[in-house]
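Q: what sequence does this backbone want?
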């Protein structure tokens, strides 16, 4: 199992949690972004820089991941593709996307996109609190305990 990160939009505090977790459980962590990323020196952590463009990083993750891999992303269409390939998708706010909830999340995302297109200001997500960070770390730890043996 490997951990993939949709790193262009992933908060740095979440990346730090992932860096520590990858080293602790000795699991490969791959960050994919269209910009140069700094990563700590580790045999378990690497980054892949892809070209600029819409969904280029997402497409690279989907192409390279394998069934059973974990993908960290807030991108719901990417999460849907990951689940369709037998992977696991966790967003930085600790929610696992699953076969049971992904269609609902896609529908809500599309609805919000339609609202924004009509000029309705929907706002963005709140910044991550310390409680959010801890909840993500706990969810990640539970997943890794079950899948990294």
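A:
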């Amino acid at each position: 199992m490997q951990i993939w990160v949709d790193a262009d939009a992933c908060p740095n505090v979440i990346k730090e949690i992932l860096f520590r977790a990858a080293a602790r459980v000795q699991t490969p962590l791959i960050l994919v972004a269209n910009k140069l990323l700094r990563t700590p020196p580790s045999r378990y952590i690497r980054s892949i820089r892809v070209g600029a463009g819409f969904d280029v990083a997402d497409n690279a993750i989907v192409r390279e991941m394998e069934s059973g891999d974990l993908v960290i992303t807030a991108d719901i269409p990417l999460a849907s593709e990951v689940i369709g390939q037998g992977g696991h998708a966790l967003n930085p706010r600790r929610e696992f996307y699953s076969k049971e909830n992904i269609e609902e999340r896609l529908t809500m995302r599309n609805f919000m996109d339609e609202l924004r297109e009509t000029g309705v200001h929907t706002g963005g997500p709140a910044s991550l609190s310390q409680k959010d960070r801890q909840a993500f770390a706990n969810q990640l730890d539970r997943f890794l305990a079950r899948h990294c043996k």
